[in-house]
TrEMBL record:
UniProt family annotation: Belongs to the class-IV pyridoxal-phosphate-dependent aminotransferase family.
Matches recorded under PROSITE patterns: AA_TRANSFER_CLASS_4
Stored SUPFAM superfamilies: D-aminoacid aminotransferase-like PLP-dependent enzymes
CDD domains: BCAT_beta_family (cd01557)
Protein name per UniProt: Branched-chain-amino-acid aminotransferase
Function: Acts on leucine, isoleucine and valine.
Catalysed transformations (reactions): L-isoleucine + 2-oxoglutarate = (S)-3-methyl-2-oxopentanoate + L-glutamate; L-valine + 2-oxoglutarate = 3-methyl-2-oxobutanoate + L-glutamate; L-leucine + 2-oxoglutarate = 4-methyl-2-oxopentanoate + L-glutamate
Metabolic or biological pathway, per its Swiss-Prot or TrEMBL entry: Amino-acid biosynthesis; L-isoleucine biosynthesis; L-isoleucine from 2-oxobutanoate: step 4/4; Amino-acid biosynthesis; L-leucine biosynthesis; L-leucine from 3-methyl-2-oxobutanoate: step 4/4; Amino-acid biosynthesis; L-valine biosynthesis; L-valine from pyruvate: step 4/4
Known EC number: 2.6.1.42
Lineage: Bacteria, Pseudomonadati, Pseudomonadota, Alphaproteobacteria, Sphingomonadales
Domain of life per record: Bacteria
Record key words, sorted: Amino-acid biosynthesis, Aminotransferase, Branched-chain amino acid biosynthesis, Pyridoxal phosphate, Transferase
Cofactor(s) recorded in Swiss-Prot or TrEMBL: pyridoxal 5'-phosphate
Molecular functions per Gene Ontology: branched-chain-amino-acid transaminase activity
Length: 365
């Protein structure tokens, strides 16, 4: 067995960090993804050196050669996760090992070098420890972490890159949806699909999100907050939103979510909801669910709630669904009781106010 590389992270403090009073002002109501901390993490890879040059350094622009392969062949992957301020004053990450494993799976699918789990975790731990004062104290506040990796070899030719740059950015965030909307409205995409069997649907790569943007723009034009995609083969079965998984709640108290068949991102929040629900004795099925059935169940009252979930949006109730042929409401259009129960249970674990029976919190104290 090949020994995993051991690296020492150099620390290069930001020479001009944001002043404490200015940082406090930025943390009052941070717009999602707009407020960044003083530092970032970096590790380089090359086929001849392996993983090397690990450092925590001042956040700054990158200098790239215009022939860098990521700009031409789109070898790029990323993750999304959060660091939380706990009720006892400590700091913790939520299931970072799961993010590390998914990052490796994405790298395999995109023919990229796999970052060892311990380096992924250490890069995030070090960055959060240094910039923990950027975690907002508000109820929705957290430090959103964006590990990502790009192909950095300078060449023009279709082959996997021989060099990669891995980085982690940290961003102070509040609620994902503007105004903390109690429910969101969903547009059903008719003309576009997110992923097809054999494609990159289960990898967290930028291309998946790029292809969703035209459909998301269509959703906005039709007065909706988010888009939901149907399967690429039959254009019938619900798969996922532009950046979130989806759950359905029925009048018998059971829940369902589309199964993972290679075209849906295996969300860590999705998996957490499945675990929490089953621990509470709720029947949860992972099964295909057709858009016609969604419409019929909403009309009959069999479907009483629906919600989207993901790291950024946590658990967000879906109030209505729109299509070219019309719009239908779910359970009266308001947040459902089981949806809010799932959200409260998840957030309580993340914030350290409920027992962490699954060992999901990764404390940094």
């Amino acid at each position: 067995m090949t020994a995993e590389p051991s690296l020492t992270f150099a620390y290069e403090p930001n020479a001009t960090p944001v002043a404490a009073n200015e940082r406090a002002a930025r943390l009052v109501a941070p717009q999602f993804g707009r407020v960044f901390t003083d530092h970032m993490a970096m590790i380089r890879y090359s086929d001849d050196k392996g993983w090397h040059d690990a450092r925590i350094t001042a956040r700054a622009p990158l200098s790239m050669d215009p022939a860098s392969s990521v700009l031409h062949y789109a070898q790029e992957i990323f993750e999304g996760m959060k660091a939380y301020r706990l009720a006892d004053g400590g700091t913790a990450l939520f299931r970072p090992e799961a993010n590390a494993r998914r990052f490796q799976a994405s790298a395999r699918r995109m023919a990229m070098a796999e970052l060892p789990e311990h380096l992924f975790l250490e890069s995030i731990e070090r960055l959060v420890e240094i910039d923990r004062d950027w975690i907002p104290t508000s109820d929705e506040g957290a430090l959103y972490l964006r590990p990502f990796m790009i192909a950095s070899e300078v060449f023009l030719g279709v082959k996997p890159s021989a060099e990669y740059l891995y980085m982690v950015l940290a961003s102070s965030v509040g609620a994902y949806f503007k105004g903390g909307a109690p429910t969101v409205s969903i547009w059903v995409s008719q003309d576009y699909t997110r992923a097809a069997p054999g494609g990159t649907g289960e990898a967290k790569c930028g291309g998946n999100y790029a292809t969703s943007l035209v459909a998301q723009a269509e959703a906005i034009r039709n007065g909706c907050d988010q888009v939901v995609f149907l399967d690429a083969v039959e254009r019938r079965y619900v798969e996922e939103l532009g950046g979130m998984n989806v759950f359905f709640v029925f009048d018998d108290g059971s829940m369902a979510t589309p199964p993972l068949r290679g075209t849906i991102l295996p969300g860590i929040t999705r998996d957490s909801i499945l675990t929490i629900a089953r621990a509470q004795g709720i029947t949860v099925r992972e099964e295909p669910y057709a858009i016609d059935q969604w419409r019929a169940d909403a009309a009959s009252g069999r479907l009483v709630e629906a919600f989207a979930c993901g790291t950024a949006a946590v658990v967000t109730p879906i109030g209505s669904v729109a299509e070219p042929q019309g719009r239908f409401e779910i359970g009266g259009g308001g947040p459902g009781q089981l949806t809010l129960r799932m959200r409260d249970a998840l957030v309580a674990i993340q914030r350290g106010t409920a027992p962490d029976t699954n060992g999901w919190l990764h404390r940094l104290d």
